[in-house]
Amino acid sequence: MKLYWSIALLAGLLLGLFLLTDNTPVLENKTEIFNVDNTCDLSTPRRAVRSFLFSVRNYNRDNFTGFDCLTKVVSSPADMADDNKSEAVKKAHDIFLLLENLNYDIDDDIPETVQGDQIKLNFEYEGQQLELGMRRGPYGWHFSSTLFRNPELINLVKKLRHKYAKFTSEKMEGDTFVQSLMSPYRTFFTLKSGVEGKSHDNLKAAVNSLDMSRFTALEKPVYGPILAVMLYRIINSCSSLHLEELSAAPDSEYAPVFMVIPEMGSITMHVVTLENGRKAWKFTPHSLQVTQTCYDDTMQELLREGTDPFVGRQLPLHIVIDDFVQQNYPQLMVKYLNTNIYKWVALFVLFLVTPLVVRIISYLLNIVLTSIEKKLPKGIIPPNRRKFVLPIQVMVVGYSWLALVGVLILYKDLMIFSLYGVKIIGTISTIWIITVVTNLSCDVLTATGGASIRGTMMLIIAQIFKLAIILMGLAHIAQLFGQDSTRIFAAMGIGGLAIALAGKDTLENIFGTMVIMTTRPFAVGDWINFLGHDGTVEKVGVRSTSIRTFYNSELIIPNAKFITMPVDNLGRREWRRYKTTIGVAYDTPAENLNGYVQGLKRLVLNHPKTRKNDFHIVVNDFGPSSIDILVYIFFKTEDWAEELIVRHEFIVDALRLAEELKINIALPTTTVHLRNETPDIYPEFQSDSHAINEARNYANRIRPVKSDD
């Protein structure tokens, strides 16, 4: 941390020294932001044509704006009463198509003042003379109604429409063009309408007029809108080439040169072939480089001359900030290491604020994690908080720097390093967080789900989900470097197949996982016997299953084994069998022996955890040293631990019953009996029924009848 603040102090001193020694004059004259004139001025032929062109372009954008104006220009008041909307629009499109393809200068070829109420405009198209008549009406100048009945004009319109259909139809053979970029005229109009438009989509359309083949897919969204605005501002303010002078022919033999900047190059267009095979006129990559290099100096020069070059709507944040500094603090526009000094100041401020942001994130996350940990089930050990806090800190700080660098710095190498570096860090951090959260969820599910099939299924799905997230993250990182996502996943599929063929055991383990998911032979928490090993299923993964044996060792079994080997799932028993033999001494009276057997049965019937039917307690055999009583009963318990408790209770009750009835439990040994002159004293019973009743009474006292409730 000391090194961090030492660097911050050094950077602050350098910035302060640079600002104190800079003597760039402050501009005193500031003008208002340029507004495009949207009025419909038909007072002169030239203004009427300008208003007509502007209205048709606006109408083409939204099929609404400019309709009233274009109607007045193409129709006289008498015709307007007869024409419907579609007829007026058709006339406007015919005239607009002609004017787009005629080579003329609106300032030189269309007069401003005219003597009289009508005028004939003479044009030439491919050696053919064309005459357009205009008249003065109540609303101003408009095209003559006889114009739309002229056979030569109708044939020329048809010829142009066929020509443009050839250049824009994808179904026809030959070179086809994108309609909005089919000529220098259309391309510059797309740039102009996009920058001056009212919606953000128009600015995106303006970016299409730029040849950004030298930019990567990650850079285009950042650089595109900024360069489009810069390019249009320079052309709009400095170029002597106007929109009306550009060629509207897709097959134009020359590219327009908007301006030439000494020692830098020219701003021009060329024809490019797009990925879909269609062609388009676009501003060259070198033009974009020239624009970016000379933009700041050009804007400052225009401001000194009293011209406001800041046109555009819905501007990128970089342009908004740059315009504010250009107009209010021009001394901060001085470049240091090829970057404006105000951008270094902003980065320095972010450098100072970063430690504070890191501390705030840590504080807030600790509060959230503390609240979550209190709600975790008992037995869950929460992961190290640093595993959550660190990736989130990296993501927030990284994206903060990315946002500021993307807004301020246009220095290509630094921008590329920042964009790719932070995107990769963000992707890795996201994978990191998802993995930690998934692991914690698995622990909670294991602790609360017990031996549920649903819990086991969720654990397997969680493992697959983590693997999928990692693969998607790697694909996303590869996509940042221009790799197609479809090809990436296809390569993963081919690579996976190759790995599967090379590692047959791995493929079998995956199939084994699918068998576990579909047939569900066991769940986490089940007591199983597999290949002679007893234990409790602790974890089910994509490749293997972990079993905790009763020796507390961990047994890892590949999932492929479960395809062919039988699994004895002891945890799914509805009743847990208990089979044993109780040996009693040979000198036990028959009445006592019979009473003891009936007492054992009563113990089973009175216990809440035993099955009350289909059990057997009988004198079964004469053993080597005892009379053997077979005990074959069933317990209803959830797990092995509870079974041991119930078994313990039954055995103790059987011993107490034996004490009451004076039943000697025989030892599995050979005993030499010496005749005892003094006979043993046994309880005297009058009959078998008397012994049975007394034994049952003893049994009822030992374990009274309890209801299942």
Summary tags:
single chain; 709 residues; alpha+beta; 5-stranded antiparallel sheet; 3-stranded antiparallel sheet; 22 helices; elongated
Give a structural overview.
The chain is an alpha+beta fold. Helix content is 53%, strand content 13%. It is built from 22 helices and 16 strands. The protein has helices at 2-21, 45-62, 67-74, 77-82, 85-101, 106-109, 151-168, 184-196, 200-207, 220-238, 285-304, 317-328, 341-374, 386-408, 412-449, 453-480, 485-502, 504-519, 561-564, 590-606, 640-660, 688-702, and strands spanning 118-125, 128-137, 140-143, 257-261, 265-273, 279-283, 335-336, 339-340, 527-530, 533-540, 544-549, 554-558, 568-569, 576-584, 616-622, 627-635. It has a five-stranded antiparallel β-sheet with strand order 12-11-10-9-13. β10 (533-540) and β11 (544-549) form a beta hairpin. α2 packs across α3, α17 crosses α18 and α21 packs across α22 (688-702). The longest helix is centred in the middle third of the chain and has 38 residues, at 412-449. Residues 22-38 and 169-174 have low confidence and may be disordered.
Taking the sheet with the most strands, its summary is: 5 strands, antiparallel
- Assign an overall shape: elongated
Radius of gyration: 46 Å
Q: Provide a count of the helices.
A: 22
Strand order of the largest sheet: 12-11-10-9-13
* Measured distance between first and last alpha carbons: 66 Å
Uncertain stretches of 5 or more adjacent residues: 22-38, 169-174
Name the beta content range.
5-15%
